[in-house]
Amino acid sequence: DGGITQSPKYLFRKEGQNVTLSCEQNLNHDAMYWYRQDPGQGLRLIYYSQIVNDFQKGDIAEGYSVSREKKESFPLTVTSAQKNPTAFYLCASSLRQGSDTQYFGPGTRLTVL
Amino acid sequence: DAKTTQPNSMESNEEEPVHLPCNHSTISGTDYIHWYRQLPSQGPEYVIHGLTSNVNNRMASLAIAEDRKSSTLILHRATLRDAAVYYCILRALTGANNLFFGTGTRLTVIP
């Protein structure tokens, strides 16, 4: 079945460590996105990529980095520079950018101890 | 993208219709109106979208005001599985993809 997978579902890290969250899609979508969600809040855009080897900062990119070496994969690294990394991270993809429907993965809940 | 305004929460009885309102007074002519919903501890899922005309699909209906400054998501018969946070989002046809999710409307379905 086509879809978006994120792993792991739950992730615990010590403060000061970098951590990479995985996002894979087999929908043949060009565009991929990373969002952050804090309790009781909406989603905020971290980074997005419209095509392989290209990505742009979203609203809250500081302390995060991404890569897009393959169409199917868009990993997010939460660096030690991110001051408050504990959150629910959601990856999404769409056929193209703009008004296209976005399809979301199940999310990764990151807790920094 | 322009912003939207939704009530924080709503309640509905099971098997009753639900009308979820959304105001978007600063909508531009090329903005699409999208609705997503998010079940607890899951990623959002697409519900429906439209531009000017009312839209129907297997999940819901979308009624768009003639001036496009507001819209209403209609669930024809609420079930317990419809309990979720519903987000109304405006999406520009082109340009940067700053999909803005506000806090949405938390729908509670009462058995």
Total strands of chain B? 9
Q: Identify the most extensive interface between protein chains.
A: A-B, 29 and 25 residues
Judged by helices, strands and strand pairing, the structural class of chain B is mainly beta
Count of separate DSSP helical elements of chain B: 0
Strand order of the largest sheet of chain B: 1-9-8-3-4
Q: Give the end-to-end Cα distance of chain A, rounded to a whole number of Å.
A: 36 Å
Largest sheet of chain B: 5 strands, mixed
Encode the helix/strand succession of chain B as letters.
EEEEEEEEE
Provide mean pLDDT of chain A, rounded: 92
Overall description:
The complex is a heterodimer of chains A (113) and B (111). Chain A is built from no helices and 11 strands. Chain A has 113 residues and is an all-beta fold. In chain A, the strands form 2 sheets. In chain A, strands 2, 4, 5, 6, 9, 10 and 11 form a 7-stranded mixed β-sheet that branches. In chain A, strands 1-3-8-7 form a 4-stranded antiparallel β-sheet, with no helix packed on it. In chain A, a hairpin with a 2-residue loop joins strand 5 and strand 6. The relative contact order of chain A is 0.33. Chain B is mostly beta strands. Helices cover 0% and strands 45% of the residues of chain B. In chain B, strand 6 and strand 7 form a beta hairpin. The termini of chain B are far apart. Classes of the chains: A mainly beta (113), B mainly beta (111). The interface between A and B is medium-sized, with 29 and 25 residues.
Which key terms come to mind for this protein?
A: 113 residues, mainly beta, 4-stranded antiparallel sheet, 0% helix, B: 111 residues, 9 strands
Helices and strands, with pairings:
The complex is a heterodimer of chains A (113) and B (111).
Chain A: E1 4-7, E2 10-13, E3 19-25, E4 31-37, E5 43-51, E6 54-57, E7 64-66, E8 76-78, E9 87-94, E10 103-104, E11 108-112
Chain B: E1 9-13, E2 18-23, E3 32-38, E4 45-50, E5 55-56, E6 61-64, E7 70-75, E8 84-91, E9 105-110
Parallel strand pairs in B: 1-9
Antiparallel strand pairs in B: 2-7, 3-4, 3-8, 5-6, 6-7, 8-9
